[in-house]
Amino acid sequence: MLLFIGERCQSMAVYNAKLVYYLFIFLDIVQGHHRLDPYANVIVGWSVSEAPAKMKNLNIYIEKPFNVSHLRIFPILKESNIGELLCIEDVIQCILGRLLLRHAAHVITGTPWEQIEFKRTEKGKPYLSNPSDTKFGMNITHQGDYVGFASSCTSKIGVDLMRLDKERKVFQQLRKYKLPKNYGNTGAGKTADDYINSMAKSASLNELRIMRSQPTESMKMTMFYRYWCLKEAILKATGEGILDDLSRIDFQVDMNDRYRPGCFLTSTTVLLDGKLQDQWIFEETFVDGNHAAAVCKEKALPRCCLFRKDPEAKLFFSKVSLENLLEYATIMNPLADNATAAYENLINKPRKTF
Fold first, then answer.
1. Residue 322 near residue 44 (C-beta atoms within 8 A)
2. Could you tell me whether strands 264-265 and 280-288 are parallel, antiparallel, or unpaired per DSSP bridges?
3. Which residues does residue 29 pair with via DSSP β-bridges, in sequence order?
4. Of 50, 49, 102, 54, which Cα lies nearest the Cα of 79?
5. How many CB atoms lie within 10 A of CB 78?
6. pTM for this one?
7. For residue 60, how many other CB atoms are within 10 A of its CB?
């Protein structure tokens, strides 16, 4: 499978019909290829098995081993703190996120892999510094079992994933035995209201009312994650970082729309200090039955953007393989001893306990 985004954000093609499409396809069949809009939502599924040489999630198997050579394809030591990350899950997520950004930058602009450069704004948001004349935006997120990517024809784009914590069913069983809160770092004693109360300073009165009014623990937690996902997405889109008072951001969700796996909702709006922020559109979907996603993007798109021709198109997330991300990769960071020491350091990192 190969995800290909066309030159200068003018077109995008997906080769191999086996790829799961991520939008209600704006199609123009050209020489057997599907030409799509230059807007992509993709994810890489992953989890840590006995060694990072084999990563899988659900029906996604990354068959090409994650090995020493993969540590050498981008300047880990120069542009990131990957080597300082404590857990192997964090390292893999970070590497996949950098690969998604670099791969997309290469196929959109045609710039050689080794010439692509990223920098960060004062608020910490990564942006493409070379080539410097680009207008499109890209953003990544990693949470739960996935690393996600979204792009748009404008620079302001934000994406966030949240794993819906179904393991809370186990925690509810543990509470029967009157275990203390956070017993064994499990959160066994926490209720949905505990989680909501922990977010109280970051939620508007309207959001708190909606969360607390849900009839079941599960529905309360789903709304908790939904609001959190939306807030992360808009903060990442604006690039302004965390506001001093997140309760100023008030999301208006239509409770008549069914928020569940398979949905594609665009009815949500947002208020800032009580004023409608009509420049944004929010796309709420599910990656799978246990992971919710939100994309925040600008409503106004440039004329060159093919997506303007079909503003009602639904862009679901597609799953891509590690092979796709490495197709154009070149060695940028030659390491001593053929990177053996770096690889040993990677596989010996501890795993998360949660």
1. yes
2. antiparallel
3. 34
4. 102
5. 8
6. 0.74
7. 19
Task: Indicate the length of the chain as a whole number.
Answer: 354
What is the DSSP track for 106-165?
HHHH---GGG-EEEE-TTS-EEEEES-----EEEEEEETTEEEEEEESSS-EEEEEEE--
| Domains located in the chain, CATH noted | 2-154+301-347 (3.90.470.20), 168-295 (3.90.470.20)
Q: Which value, in Å, is the radius of gyration of the alpha carbons in the chain?
A: 21
Question: Cβ distance 323 to 61 under 8 Å?
Answer: no
| Residue of 105, 173, 170, 113 whose CA lies nearest to 137 | 105
For residues 45 and 85, what is the distance between their CA atoms, to the nearest angstrom?
Answer: 20
Q: Do 189 and 182 meet the contact criterion of CB atoms below 8 Å apart?
A: yes
Spatial contact of 232 and 160, defined as CB atoms under 8 Å apart: yes
The predicted-structure confidence for 145-174, as pLDDT tens digits, reads as follows 888 888 888 889 999 999 887 555 444 444
- Residues 54, 45 contacting (CB under 8 angstroms): no
In whole angstroms, what is the distance from residue 60 CA to residue 325 CA?
Answer: 14
Distance CA 242, CA 232 (A): 9
* pLDDT tens digits along 61-79: 223 344 555 555 544 434 4
